[in-house]
């Protein structure tokens, strides 16, 4: 199989490794080049917005313990700085807050809303004070700010940093190595800061395909992995997961993927280096080869 600019690929079929390939290429850490890396089974890789889907898993775990508010609860109860009633946790989960937000420009540009959020004195206030452009719950708009709000709720609810909760409750039980890049204030980048190996990504994908086992509530996964709002054609969005009729996926800038095809018992974990290329040709080519059969 040709990897192109893909860096690592692990395919599980019915829980067993069917394909495992690695290549070389330039890795980044949230836009900062790390040079050319020879990737292998133990090499951590930026997974960018795959991080969002992991935050969704953590939210469901915390919700099962009554530590975070449910989807119907208003954000203003937990963010007093919010100037608008009517915005709910569910709107954040589905990225339908109805607030002005633009991540269509490169993540190296100050015009990118996620970058502007992280440069703001208060990232949560920055998100919640964006101008309203749509009725909440009606229009999907990709927003790392929504994920930042969810991560704040988890950290507050469980009483420890998000990455510590993730380490103890998700990554260590799965045997997954990770790193989570933090901002200058020590808060991890909830929308895009995780670094994982393809094997680790595959383990997370298999957990989800298995219904969460004893780690993530199955009812939460059922809600997370169904389409709550249309995105484009038959592609929809769940609770921080992308949903199509055939597959569900966590996706990240550059071609990072955890893709599940439930009817085929298939988990695909892919890392790649097509950063800021929104066509992500390497991921598209590899996935086409895998899924055409």
Structural notes for this entry:
31% of the residues lie in helices and 22% in strands. Strands 2-1-13-12-11-10-9-8 form an eight-stranded antiparallel sheet. A three-stranded antiparallel sheet has the order 5-7-6. A two-stranded antiparallel ribbon has the order 3-4. It is globular and about 50 Å long. It has a single domain, classed as DD-peptidase/beta-lactamase superfamily (Beta-lactamase), CATH 3.40.710.10. Helix 1 packs parallel to helix 5. The mean pLDDT is 95. The chain is built from nine helices and 13 strands. With 293 residues, the protein is an alpha+beta fold.
Main CATH class: Alpha Beta
CATH superfamily: DD-peptidase/beta-lactamase superfamily
Radius of gyration: 18 Å
Give the helices and strands as they follow along the chain.
Answer: EEEEEHHHHHHEEHHEEEEEEH
Span from first to last CA?
14 Å
Strand order of the largest sheet: 2-1-13-12-11-10-9-8
Which structural class should the secondary elements be placed in?
alpha+beta
What is the CATH-assigned architecture? 3-Layer(aba) Sandwich
And the CATH topology?
Beta-lactamase
What proportion of the residues is helical, as a percent range? 25-40%
Percent strand equals 15-25%
- Unreliable spans are none
Domain tally: 1
Shape: globular
Number of strands: 13
Q: How would a crystallographer describe the biggest sheet?
A: 8 strands, antiparallel
Quote the average pLDDT. Answer: 95
Q: In DSSP terms, counting alpha (H) and pi (I) runs of 4 or more, how many helices?
A: 9
């Amino acid at each position: 199989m040709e990897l192109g600019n893909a860096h690592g690929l692990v395919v599980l079929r019915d829980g067993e490794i069917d394909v495992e390939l690695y290549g070389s290429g330039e890795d980044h850490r949230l836009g900062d080049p790390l040079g050319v890396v020879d990737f292998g089974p133990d090499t951590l890789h930026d997974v960018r917005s795959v991080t969002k889907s992991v935050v969704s898993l953590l939210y469901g775990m915390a919700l099962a313990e009554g530590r975070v508010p449910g989807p119907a609860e208003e954000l203003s109860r937990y963010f007093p700085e919010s100037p608008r009633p009517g915005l709910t946790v569910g709107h954040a989960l589905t990225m339908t807050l109805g607030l002005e937000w633009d991540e269509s420009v490169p993540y190296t540009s100050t015009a990118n809303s996620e970058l502007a959020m992280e440069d703001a004195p208060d990232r949560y206030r920055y998100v919640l004070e964006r101008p309203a452009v749509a009725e909440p719950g009606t229009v999907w708009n990709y927003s790392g700010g929504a994920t930042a709000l969810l991560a704040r709720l988890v950290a507050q609810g469980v009483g420890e940093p998000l990455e510590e909760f993730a380490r103890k409750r998700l990554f260590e039980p799965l045997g997954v190595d990770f790193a989570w890049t933090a901002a200058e204030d020590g808060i991890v980048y909830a929308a895009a800061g995780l670094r994982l190996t393809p094997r680790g990504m595959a383990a997370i994908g298999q957990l989800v395909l298995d219904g969460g086992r004893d780690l993530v509530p199955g009812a939460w996964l059922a809600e997370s992995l169904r389409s709550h709002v249309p995105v484009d054609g038959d592609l929809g969005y769940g609770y921080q997961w992308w949903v199509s009729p055939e597959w569900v996926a966590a996706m990240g800038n550059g071609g990072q993927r955890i893709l599940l095809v439930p009817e085929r018992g298939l988990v695909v974990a892919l890392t790649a280096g097509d950063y800021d290329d929104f066509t992500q040709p390497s991921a598209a080519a590899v996935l086409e080869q895998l899924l055409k059969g």
